[in-house]
Amino acid sequence: MIPAPWRYYAKQYRGRGWTILASAALAAIGFAFVIPSVLLVRVIFDRAIPHADYRLLVLATVGIVALNFVTGGLSLLVRRIGLNSTKRLICHIRAQLLIKMYSVSRRYFSETESSLIHSRIVYDSDRVDVMTNSILSDMLPAAVCSVAVSVILAVLNWKLFLAILCAGPVLLVINRQFARRVRLQVQKYHQSFHDFSHGILFMLRTIDLVRLQNTRDFEVERQTRRMEELRDVSVKVAWLQAAYSVSQQNMTAVLLAVMLLVGGWALASHTMSMGSLMSFYFCLSLLSTYLRDLLSSAPLIIAGSEALSELHELLMLDDVEPYRGTQRISFQGNICFERVRFGYRADDFLQGVDLELPVGSRVALIGPNGSGKTTLLHLLCGFYRPRAGRLLADGHPYDHIDISELRESIAVVMQDPILFSGTIFENIVYGSPTATAEEVEWAARMATAHEFIVSLPESYDTIIGESGTLLSGGQRQRIAIARAILRRPRILLLDEPTNHLDINSVAKVTANLQRLPHAPTIIVVSHDIHVVKNFDAVYEISNGHLTRKSDVRLEAQQTF
Question: What domain range includes position 375?
Answer without folding.
Answer: 335-558
